[in-house]
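Fold sample X.
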Amino acid sequence: MTFRTALCDLLGIDCPIVQSGMGAIAGPELVAEVCRAGGLGVLAGLNVPPDDLRAMIRRVRELTDRPFGVNLWLHRALRPPLDPGEISDEVLGGAQGMLNRFRRNLGIPTTMARPGRAPDLVEATIRVVLDERPPVFSAALGWLEPGLAEEYRRRGIKTMAMVSTVEDARTAAAGGADVVVAQGGEAGGHRSIDGKPASPDATSVGLMALLPQVVDAVRVPVVAAGGIADGRGLVAALALGASGVLLGTRFVATRESMAPELYKKRLLESESGDTTVTDTLSGLWARALANRFTREYSASDAPVLPPLVQRAAANDVFVAALKQGDPDYYPMMAGQSVGLIRDLPGAGEVVKAVIREARAVLDALPRRVRQA
């Protein structure tokens, strides 16, 4: 099903729909389904060991011969991973004390232990992408160094960089990005910035305001992300100058998504007002479905551990919640488009439905303008 823009011509896809490379969600089956339907599926590479990432890339190629992408974080907290040993005993004790309340509620052992240091994977996984040469490299949460973009270009790999501010869009384009993704404040998941601001307000500009500014600021195709789940959103993004849209939350709620059933069920039951921007889940600002974990932690005076160390410290809580089927203590990233999602189709069906809806909107638009 074709619906071509400059983005399609650049990436070799049939329609301007990109599936977000969401960690622990976007596996080979989801990616391949999106690609076969004409969009760009993006494989999640965050925290995936190099050999596993190589196997996943090759699995996508077994499932489809269409262009696809691989997403990696370039955040400074991963290059190398932060050392938990540098956290003060007072801060660690305060965070673990809060997490122990949740552990007791779930009936799992409490602990005041210092979490281990995360494995240093970024440079090795970058090398895997260079070796395997997927058509697209998707960068998020960090700087795209000009040398890296040039190295990908020499291998025939297009680079797509997600940003949350106009300034970062200029930096990404100057650094060699072939495509810039403008992430509006409505978007689910982590704010695509390097470091961590004192509050999320600096990176929470709504897409309708951010998108045309980014389009004006760079000379490469721009993809709109945040609050989009159907054809109306695609048409609106194109009207604001985008060359395509990136959907995340809509693809979480698909049959091929690797999200657990309790997560998918909660998405289908939620409204836009059920999301919150919090740092309690990972130590970085992210939009997720609010639950008892986010509400009680945010309401407490407990400190939040540094980026991604917080996620490691809370991991036993999240694992126990998943085993017990308890959504009150499980992290569920979601954007404000969640209020538009009420079914669990196949990922390919989502792509086709968005294009079909967009065509209907465009056909009806002249009549609506005359009536205005």
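Fold sample Y, listed below.
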Amino acid sequence: MLIRQHPALAVLSLGQALYWSCSIIGITLTGLVGQQLAPWPQLATAPLALLIVGNLLTVGTMARWMASIGTRRALQRGALLGMVGGLTSMAGIQLGSFALFSLGVLLVGAYQASAGYYRFAALEGVAASDQGRASAWVVAGGMAAALLAPSLALHSRHLLGPAFGGAYLALAGLAALACAVLQALPASHTKPAVTQAPGAPNAPQTGVATSRRALWQRPAIRQALLLTACGHGLMILVMNATPLAMLGCGHGLQASAMVIQWHVLGMFAPSLLAGPAVDRFGPARVALCGVLLLAASALWALSGVEVAQFLPSSLLLGAGWNLVLLAGTHLLTRSHHPAERRLAQPMMEWGNSAMAALMSMGSGLLVQTLGWQAINWAMLPVLAAMLWWLRPAPKLQALAR
């Protein structure tokens, strides 16, 4: 069994579960806290945008840390930043300070940046034929978070008196636990990441790119970056708007938490099938299925504003995101040399985070001005562009792993 051959997968999967438990608390509550603390209604989702900004500011730093001090210590630093962010957010709620709460969310974004590398860390030392399943094992760790985190958000939010403060204390505790869990990563993840291709320790290998611009010229890498950025951006746009839209449609917090729970299950449960499918059928076909699921999500949401529409559309949204992310990650990994890892992996994370930041900033404004259905209509032209990029799929280069 793959996870027995590579024990790091179990550690990273548990770390992913803890990270996504923190993330789900933020997904469920941050927009609502922002709505309570923001000086203007249009800024309600600004903290969610700052979450992505914190991610953007830390993606490159995380890659440098992994290259210099090793994967384990770098990922642990990210979890510690999440702990500090949770405590700062809690303090902002306690003091009624929108600025302090936003600063805390910004720091949690740094934790998000580190968690983005978990699926790449899972590929270290794994044969190319098993990489789809390896990354899927780690992504699937979020299923545990989907089952437990919404209830944790609901039951912990009043622990400290003011609404929602206790939930961010719980977030800090989960991030601290993740830091402890990551200590169990095996020795292979404690060394600095490979920056040279095998057999060329002192000089770059022929054909190895030395700039992000050179990597962007490869069609397979360009396809992987565009697909994952758009898929991630659409997911963030709709996911962040969902709690606000449900509140505006008269649905309570418990209904919103249930919908988010099913959404997150959709984000991770398909990994159990998507990982083997990527290994067997290739990333392009899996990405195509993901785009079709995203389209189905938008069309279902356009059919009404009852829980019966919100829940299935959110489930489909998560499943589509999962397939596009795993396919894009696999496509990127197969299209660059190990010596290019420090350049290629941050390119995907920057692209995803930049698109997510843009969508987070726009989601609150769109909900407040144009409404819930406008958001779902806006998905369709982007999905059409994603289908265009998938036909024809570029031929993958045979690169040494």
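Sample Y note: The chain has 17 helices and no strands.
Also: Residues 205 and 293 are 40 Å apart (CA to CA).
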